[in-house]
Amino acid sequence: MVNSNCRQSILNIYDVSGRIVLSTGSESEIKTIGIEKLRPGIYTLEIVKNKNSYYHKFSVIR
Question: For the whole prediction, is pTM greater than 0.85?
């Protein structure tokens, strides 16, 4: 699970090749994103809020 503290934002997860593998909006302060279906690898979480983008890299290891 990935928890993001962002109200009124867009959350995108990109794989290592730059493709969006998950995209969702958030209207609450805390958004939980299930990543159970992602394959093992390195991903980038993009949080877009008020025309600003914030990035966080994470790994899925099984």
Answer: no
